[in-house]
Amino acid sequence: MAFPVTDDRVDPKLEPGVLAAAAWLMGRENECDATLLRRAHVIGLLRKGRAGGLWKCDGPLLARLLRQRARSGKSLKDGAILIGIGEMIARAHAPEDEIEGILGRLFRHTSSETIRLRMLRQAVDLARPKKTAPRSLSPVYETEILSIMDWTQITLADRWIRHPRPLGTSPGYGIGFVARVLLRNDPRRLRWLAKEADKRRILPAIIGSVAEACFWSDRAAQQALRSGVPLFAGFGVAKLRDGGEDGKGWKASAIDAALVASGTPIEGRIHLSAFMLKEAVHAWHRQKDRPAENRRKRAILEIHPQQAMGGEHNAVHQIARLVEDAPELERLRAAVILARDDALQTAARQDIDPKTLWTVFEPSLVDTPEIRHRFAMAHTEVPLRQAALEEALTTFDRLVGVRHPERICNENFDAVRAEREFAFWAANSQVELSKLKKQRDAGHDAARRIGSVEAALRDFVLQPFAAARFHERFQNSIGRWSVVLQFALLVALCDRKAPLIRLRDEALKSASAFLPVAERFAYNPKWVEAVAGLVADALSTMEGTVVRGWIDDERQPVLLRTQLVWACPAILSNNLEFATSLIDEVATRKTTRAAAGRNASHLLDIVDRAAVAMKREDRPDLYSHLAIPHAKASAQTDAPLARSVSTETLLAALNADPNARMIVLEDPVWGRSRISEMV
Q1: Percent of the chain with pLDDT over 70
Q2: What highest taxon heads this organism's lineage (predicted)?
Q3: From the centroid of its chain, how far is CA 201?
């Protein structure tokens, strides 16, 4: 029984190219359309749909006929055959990989390049967009606003791989099949195919086919890297880097090596390495604190089992689960650190001109001070590293107003970014930059960088009634002054055994004016606490008479004076009552729950400083006094972790007890302390 129509271009149920493909598969190229349809129906290759529905194809029979034609040595000569086989596969359950491989070999073995190009042009001409096609919701397919040859559009490819959407518009399945055949067997031709398809407004079909192939197959993703089309290479990179979890998948160096082997231009490698760096940094942010958070939760449940979900009786089970999860969290953290370092080194190799290309890589650093510094240090050549460090410091310069100190007091201040981490990594960059400049002193360079802005901020803040007169501008200036002082002190103390004396003394002079004003008027107590801690560190490198002057200065914050007393065993031994009264002030200086937690942290920091100083100066007779600040910290009801390690365990760790040492190193509070560094 024959189909009721004979012309596949007239019958809307039979797509263009199907008859040509059927004729070639059956070896009956010279027969008329009616005979071909009848023959295809008889052998079961093509079947009518029920009740006038869409036609179907027998997939296994299609594959068998194709294998027979390949063995017979019959070559391809018409692009309509490729289109037709693609339409058949879309309506059959067929071994697509095998069919694509066979057709790819036949296409490559076609006698001449002219014939191959003619076949592809015929295939493109035969595909035609549907007049009434639904609009796609994915920006990947909006060809009116998207250039697939733009390396900056790689993020769209990654977005699609993560959240694939249907094509929306389609000129038929045949042209998409042609794209998959080329992707598998000759990916460099996809560049030509995409350009020709774009002229005929059928590019979305090419994009969708390549994207879906990359989504389902790592091999297709690897082939996409060789296509020379930025968007297609983006599909490949997005698939290969995604291993299903953070730290898995291809590393940046492996992808860059594949791009080099495929002849990708340096522009493409730059943008792809920037993309890989951004993803690696995000993965690192997601995983870096999870092991510490796991230890913190375990410690809280061990101290306060009533905080367990569902009641105290569930604490044992939750602790067991946290212990079970700990090795996996450590493994993930190690994996993302490895991927982060690999991405940093790969991106640094592409950063051949930091002054020009920094704007390309800056978004990939995710505004993270540590990553900004590590990226600069990943440059191996001295001139490039020097230029990268200078670019890394521009963020610090903008925040504190180095370039325009005369008007910085009138500008807003981003307090969220002004944490101690920001000043810490900026100081590291300054120290490393000075090392690269022969015979340059880091203290001199730092003073030149911040000298003008520090003077402007000091003059503005110390005006009479400045806090009441200028309100927000005053707070902005206090915050900036705090960051400047942190930067100066961190540079001065880059080597505790050999501090930069001149910079240290100038920073302490400025801090002595800053701290009384900031302690009284600053909205953010962290600005004061960060500077106070660094001042205590700096004074620990000076003579006792200087320290005594700061302790006796009642204008200075009580936290700083307490830190200084307890970190100086000679003063503590003769002024225990005074030191105890200072501890009482620190323990009760705030009343809110959040402040109570901060008070406990400060008290434990005092214990930490005191214990290290006593051990360094060999004063075991003072060890018993450590119980005073430790007891005050443990008494804070909203700081349960203050009781995680006893003073006896801390002292045992200082005396080289192996069990106590292990407890201290694994504790969520004491694992990053000065005591842990000493033991």
Answers
A1: 92
A2: Bacteria
A3: 37
